Amino acid sequence: MPLSSEDIVKNEKSIIGSTRNIELSGTVLLVEDQDIVRKVAMAFLERLGFDVMPAMGGNEAEALFRSNHENICLVLTDLSMPGMNGWGTLSALRAIQPDIPVILSSGYDETHALTGNHVDQPQAFLRKPYQLKSLKEALEKALKD
Amino acid sequence: MSLLTDETGKELGIATVAQDISERKKAEEERLSLQKKLDQVEKDDSLARMAGAVAHNFNNMLAAIIGNLELAMLELAWEHFPGLCAFVKRRYSEK
């Protein structure tokens, strides 16, 4: 028996989730050096109801954040990037606004990615590849505090 | 080993010095074995790092592939693809 389009709508609700305890809206600063990954992350975030401000690296993100941080509710950043990496970006942005929620994303597993002595820690870690559901969970976790 | 003589050149005897170097030999062997172990650890470490970097690249590519696939599935006008619908439904129920 094929799925009806109604089923798909229901299916989408179960993927994205219909209960919204935490407001999923506002502007997310998305920092990702790889075009194809950034495009997907952007589409995911927009689908969840966010506006997205994309940056291709840490330095661009820092400049964007400096002039727009009042409008940015969260930062989703990749870890491994040329130039300023995710940790450097995290510290630079927290220096501007100490309470900005940050999600750190990486193709390395969590233990590998989060090793090292870093003063500034992200609210959530998102392992790549991720699906819409995991992104939503990470966003909820990061915005809860 | 050296020949001992008096002031006229007359031979008096032979003097030898012997040293037990078994400790030194043992230490040298130990050093070599430790060096070998260290080489192996370094080899393992660089291999692990390479595997990690490959996995990292794969995961980035997978993020794009899986992400686009998921988006495509959400955007698809499913009513036009009953066969695909059935297939996806079957695959989901297998999980």
Description:
The complex is a heterodimer of chains A (145) and B (95). Chain A is 44% helix and 19% strand. Chain A has 145 residues and is of the alpha/beta class. Chain A has one domain: Response regulator (Rossmann fold), CATH 3.40.50.2300. A five-stranded parallel sheet of chain A has the order 2-1-3-4-5, sandwiched between helices. The longest helix of chain A has 13 residues, at 35-47. The model of chain A has no long low-confidence stretch (mean pLDDT 87). Chain B is mainly alpha-helical and 95 residues long. Helices cover 71% and strands 9% of the residues of chain B. Chain B has two helices and two strands, in the order E-E-H-H. Chain B has a two-stranded antiparallel ribbon. In chain B, 6% of the residues are buried. The model of chain B has no long low-confidence stretch (mean pLDDT 89).
Shape of chain A: globular
The main sheet of chain A orders its strands as: 2-1-3-4-5
Radius of gyration of chain B: 38 Å
| Low-confidence regions of chain B | none
Structural class of chain A: alpha/beta
What is the approximate shape of chain B? Answer: rod-shaped
Give the structural class of chain B: mainly alpha
Could you tell me the CATH topology label of chain A. Rossmann fold
State the CATH class of chain A: Alpha Beta
Question: Can you name the CATH architecture of chain A?
Answer: 3-Layer(aba) Sandwich
Mean pLDDT of chain A: 87
Total strands of chain A: 5
Give a quick summary of the entry.
The complex is a heterodimer of chains A (145) and B (95). With 145 residues, chain A is an alpha/beta fold. Chain A is built from six helices and five strands; from the N terminus they run αβαβαβαβαβα.
